[in-house]
Design goal:
InterPro entries: Cyclic-di-GMP_PDE-like (IPR050706), EAL_dom (IPR001633), EAL_sf (IPR035919), GGDEF_dom (IPR000160), HAMP_dom (IPR003660), LapD_MoxY_N (IPR032244), LapD_MoxY_peri_C (IPR042461), Nucleotide_cyclase (IPR029787). Pfam families: EAL, GGDEF, LapD_MoxY_N. By secondary structure, the protein is of the alpha/beta class. It is 51% helix and 17% strand. The strands form 4 sheets. The chain has an 8-stranded mixed beta sheet with strand order 11-12-15-16-17-18-19-20, with helices on one face. The chain has a 5-stranded mixed beta sheet with strand order 6-7-5-8-9, with helices on both faces. The longest helix has 52 residues.
Length: 635
């Protein structure tokens, strides 16, 4: 039984006890008082009547008339005149009770009043004895009326008391509900904080839980910081902070081999000529600072710091990937300005920064792409300017000739409805955790993967429309096979769109049983606004049983401490950290640290992009809960 119910029962029991106690005391006191008054009345009336009869002639008829006149007043149950021998001379009596008081009440009260007696004299001689007994009907009626009045006042007082108690209980229940919700969050490893209630006992509990949540948050931040330091030590160049060559190449291969939208974009390679001469003229420390500033300037070319992917291929060559970037004309001025900023830091040295820009698309050959970059870089080096930029446009056939055709085709494809692919996510026992369901759209009479149309979807701001269509298709698939669990990708643009969230909730509330079989995944590129939107989305959809996850999580993902209260079900580690993990001790160390940190919050860790059995076995050894990718097959 809940505490609130116990509190209500205690209040009601207290009110009933007060009513019964006050009623019992009032009735008992009233009965005792009435018995005393009736006893005195019996004696007084008997004495007065006997005195009157003693002064009259002792004619039976006259005495009977006097007794009848007294009896007919209605206040007596019996008046009896006996002679000296005890024989009844005259007797008038009435029924035991007259009135509408219930019998059970009379049985409970039961007046016990002695009869009044008096002696009648005839001169100096005793004539007889008079016995008088009052009628109790009026006493019963009086007590019954008192009880009804007390009950009425009790009901009124009880109603007022319950109204006041309702306000008090609500005042207690509201902070109690918050404390209970926080306790449930902590049991689910969501370390939330709440406003401290005014109730002393609840405030102490809330303070303890808030301290626990704060300590966990601090612990997560510290562990994330340690993991980030380890990652930087193992994967980044210590001078500039750029990715090492092997790490960058692994991420490039992973990205090009995926169907993700980030597999489309631009790649920039910059070479610092005559690095040895710069070291001699500026000194190692100044040169290192100059190279670090170059990496910073290149990183700022990305839309957000989270999307910047800069690598150092060797001492003088730096490379930058800009996913989803397609407008070379808009990029070149910003690139030239960044390079000029670096060149101006050493104006007397004559530093040259030849740069090549190449577009890349899904399934490009990495070797061919790098060869194209080298060719363009050689062209830039042959020029005499300080910051010469050579551009190589990607030669590929676009599905449509212009923006209007793309927009029309995308709207038609979304209206027609997407197609969902099925990729299993399995655990160590080859049980299916859920199915990844990336969308396909029918464009140019073929079903195209996300890497082909997502850049155009983003350009036309059609993400919410596409995501709603995907959810509808998933619900349709679950209707025919409700035992499956499907993972659906949601874009950042969708979760930050209030209308999308409202429509999504309305759609899922119509089919709550199927909503429990959906997992919603958002990309790891989350800014502060996106984290707040994700928190609101989780709050809105969690009562429906939906699960939430983060996909494409790289080693640089440091927002776990900000997401601990959202209630994530899983994180999917990006394939760039998974490829070749069975041969890389550094990757195993990083993935093991990420898994340990996530498990402390009850979050599952799933590996993306698994290509071979050796990787799968190594992943489960370091603590990963699930895996997906080309190398994952159901038995």
């Amino acid at each position: 039984m809940s505490l609130i119910k116990q509190l209500w029962l205690a209040i009601i029991a207290l009110l009933l006890l007060s009513f019964v106690g006050s009623l019992a005391i009032s009735i008992t006191s009233g009965r005792d008082y009435i018995e005393q008054e009736v006893r005195i009345k019996n004696e007084d009336n008997a004495t007065a009547l006997a005195l009157s009869m003693s002064q009259l002639e002792k004619d039976i008829v006259t005495l009977e008339l006097l007794i009848s006149a007294q009896f007919d007043t209605g206040y007596y149950r019996r008046i009896t005149l006996r002679d000296t021998e005890g024989q009844v001379l005259i007797e008038r009596s009435a029924s035991e009770y007259r009135g509408d008081v219930p019998a059970w009440f009379r049985n409970v009260i039961h007046f016990d009043v002695p009869i009044g007696t008096a002696t009648i004299q005839d001169g100096w001689r005793q004539f007889g004895t008079l016995e008088l007994e009052s009628q109790h009907s009026f006493a019963y009626a009086s007590l019954w009326r008192i009880m009804l009045e007390l009950a009425g006042w009790f009901l009124l007082a009880g109603a007022i008391s319950l109204a006041i108690a309702t306000v008090v209980v609500r005042g207690i229940k509201h902070p109690l509900v918050r404390v209970v919700a926080q306790a449930k969050d902590i049991s689910a490893r969501r370390f939330t904080t709440i406003k401290e209630p005014r109730t002393l006992e609840l405030r102490e509990v809330a303070q303890a839980m808030n301290v626990l949540s704060a300590n966990v948050r601090q612990m997560l931040s510290q562990e994330s910081q340690k993991l980030d330091e380890l990652r930087r030590h193992l994967q980044h160049d210590r001078v500039t902070g750029a990715l090492n060559r092997d790490v960058f190449m692994g991420r490039l291969s992973s990205l090009l081999g995926s169907e993700d939208a980030r597999a489309t974009g631009l790649m920039i390679m910059t070479r610092v000529e005559s690095l040895e001469t710069l070291n001699e003229q500026l000194g190692h420390q100044a040169t290192d600072q100059l190279l670090s500033e170059l990496v910073t300037q290149l990183s700022q070319l990305a839309p957000t710091p989270e999307e910047a992917l800069v690598g150092r291929l060797n001492g003088s060559d730096f490379i930058l990937m800009l996913p989803l970037e397609a407008d070379t004309g808009a990029l070149i001025p910003r690139l030239r300005q960044a390079l000029d900023t670096i060149a101006l830091k050493a104006p007397n040295i004559g530093m040259r920064l030849p740069t090549a820009v190449v577009a890349y698309t899904p399934h490009d050959d990495r070797g061919g792409l790098l060869a194209t970059l080298d060719d363009a870089l050689a062209e830039a080096e042959s020029a005499s300017a300080h910051t010469t930029v050579a551009v190589r446009e990607h030669q590929h056939n676009s599905l449509f000739g212009n923006h209007a055709e793309w927009r029309s085709a995308l709207n038609a494809a979304i209206t027609l409805g997407p197609q969902l692919a099925y990729f299993p996510v399995i655990d160590a026992h080859h049980n299916v955790l859920h199915y990844e369901c990336p969308a396909r759209l029918e464009l140019a009479n073929n079903w195209q993967t996300a890497g082909m149309f997502i850049p155009w979807i983003s350009r036309f701001h059609l993400e919410p429309a596409l995501d709603i269509a995907v959810v509808k298709k998933a619900l349709e698939q679950l209707t025919s096979n409700p035992a499956q669990t499907l993972g659906i990708n949601l874009s950042i643009a969708s979760i930050t769109n209030a209308e999308f969230v409202i429509e999504l909730r309305r759609l899922l509330e119509k089919q709550p049983q199927l909503a429990k079989q959906l997992c919603f995944e958002v990309p790891a590129i989350l800014n502060t606004h996106a984290i707040g939107s994700l928190r609101g989305l989780c709050t809105a959809l969690r009562p429906l049983g939906c699960q939430f996850g983060i996909e494409h999580v790289g080693a640089e993902f440091t927002k776990l401490a900000d997401l601990h209260d959202i209630g994530l079900a899983y994180l999917k580690i990006d394939s760039s950290l998974i490829g070749g993990i069975h041969t890389s001790h550094e990757q195993q160390t990083i993935v093991r640290g990420m898994a340990t940190l996530c498990h402390s919050l009850g979050i599952q860790v799933i590996a993306e992009g698994v290509t071979e059995q050796a990787e799968l076995e190594s992943l489960f050894k370091v603590g990963v809960d699930g895996a997906t990718g080309p190398g994952v097959r159901l038995n």
